[in-house]
Amino acid sequence: MTLRTVGLRLAGLVVSLLVASLLIFLATNALPGDVAQVILGTNASPGEVEALRQRLGLDRPLSVRYVEWVTGVVRGDFGTSMITGRDVVSQIAPRLEVSLWLVGLAMVLAILISLPLGAFAAVRRRHASGFVASAIAQIGLSIPAFWAGIWLVVIFAVTLRWLPAGNYVSYWDSLGQWALHLVLPVTALAVVQASILARYVRSAIIDVLGEDWFRTARSVGWSTWGALLRHGSRNVAISLLTVIGLQLSTLLVGAIIIEQVFALPGLGSRLLLAVGQRDLVVVQGIVLLLVWAVLVINFVVDVIYQFVDPRLRRVGTNR
Amino acid sequence: MRRANLVVGGVLIAVIVSMAAVGLFWTPFSPTAISGPRLAPPGWPHVLGTDGQGSDTASRIISGAKLALLVGVMSVSAAALIGVPVGIIAGMSHRWVAAILSRGADILYGFPALLLAILFAAAVGGSTWTAVAAIGIATIPVFVRIARAATMQVMSQTFVEAARLSATPPLQVAWRHVLPNIAPVLGVQVSVSFGLAILAEAGLSYLGLGSGSDVPTWGRMLREAQNELFNAPLVALWPGLAIAMATMGFNLLGDGLRDLLDPKLREIA
């Protein structure tokens, strides 16, 4: 992959980010519905509504407001909340930590579960035990993460009383409590993600098992598992990497719901609070943050992919 | 064993669909009115017990099937009606058009249904329609991608080349040659997307971003059940089972159809 292709892709990314920001802005601002009216309630006089519209800057043309918003965001200024009057960044920043731990740990746990589960389902696919492994992944795929979360609470918090049912403790206050409070939400989020990943791991490994070079490795004396670990891991890593990139948005969205189940003070719960208050500036800012994160990480995965997979490197230069 | 996917999937879907069909005309009790004591355990006459309001859980589950399927049908068909033509155009056209269309699909791919639903709910307030719109729009890029990839495969075949060389107009090529050949792949995707749509709708109504409180939905039932978790955990069981059954039914049907279509895959799996 040459510097030129990286540059071209980078330009493509910038265009995507801008288009995404425009879509978000239009969805919150161009749809019918008067925010000032909603905030003040139906009893407000037309004069009061007009005054609030002016204070919020809603009376100016859409294009001006969009350009102001985006240039602000690029400088790190997401605007001020329509309800609290404080700037959005200072309200988002403390919550970022909670969401990052939740998503990050869930991703790690999901990979740790999906690799052995998927590999087992692939290698033993002609046996009943492999079928059971596939069935487990199928079930995990079909249950909503929040339902898994509710049942984890019923079992481990309500019945056994081993773990707390919700809330968040900062690791500055108590490392042990921090870990205990994250066990259930991270598990709930990871179970569903692991099921999705396990299916991809399974089909990636089935592909590997059918390769000529794999048969050669087996015939020179490697065991199935040994040959997989020694020669197949790169193939599996490549397909896992792509799926993780594509599934990232599923994980972020899942985290929003899981935060609600476990009353975690993360980005998602702030976002839902803002939706309830019709605080469009905060909604816009957090959604933009999430969508941009997905686009940027997929870009990074795409670039890493080119480096990990030597077959694509050649194709990349041709394009 | 090979057809197990199709059979189990078909049975699960049949159960959900007949539940929805029955729910159009009849439920044991009113799904919204109070019909018994609060949090009654499963028994008679409340087969699955009652919820925290005293409404019959079984009636609410049956009534919820209607909405789940309705949202699924509307959002997936809207997504397919928009996504498939765009994908076919992208697959049949040259560099520029194809690049712009797939880049657009990629950007939309960064917007999951929940984020779109949140944007709509913030702007105009949540309802069944914002949920349908959000899930539908979020599903479009999936159809664009699949339709494009499948179209490109068909376009490289000799019979399409023959048609193009004999000056068949592109629209006719798309209708007569491309669409029938990519239809099976699209069918698989419709089934899988349907499962995802039901899952997404449940998430939205759990968060209170979907249908209003007067409509019983599986997601909303779970949200309400969470308040009674210490007293009656069973209330949180049934709606989740219904969601899982519906989603799994469509997933398995999709898997089964895929195996049927692709003899090579059937051999491997």
Topology:
The complex is a heterodimer of chains A (319) and B (269).
Chain A: H1 3-29, H2 35-40, H3 46-56, H4 62-74, H5 88-123, H6 128-142, H7 145-159, H8 175-209, H9 212-219, H10 224-261, H11 267-277, H12 280-308, H13 310-318
Chain B: H1 4-25, H2 57-92, H3 95-109, H4 113-124, H5 128-155, H6 158-165, H7 170-207, H8 218-226, H9 238-261, H10 263-268
Helix pairs in contact in B: 1-2, 1-9, 2-3, 2-5, 2-7, 3-5, 4-5, 5-7, 6-7, 7-8, 7-9, 8-9
Would you give an account of this structure?
The complex is a heterodimer of chains A (319) and B (269). Chain A is an all-alpha fold and 319 residues long. Helices cover 79% and strands 0% of the residues of chain A. By secondary structure, chain B is mainly alpha-helical. Chain B has one domain (4-33, 48-268): MetI-like (MetI-like fold). In chain B, 74% of the residues lie in helices and 0% in strands. Chain B is built from ten helices and no strands. Chain B is elongated, with a radius of gyration of 22 Å. Chains A and B meet through helix 1, helix 6, helix 7, helix 10 and helix 11 of A and helix 3, helix 4, helix 7, helix 8 and helix 9 of B.
Features of this protein?
heterodimer, A: 319 residues, mainly alpha, MetI-like fold, 2 domains, 13 helices, globular, B: 269 residues, 10 helices, disordered C terminus, MetI-like_sf (chain B)
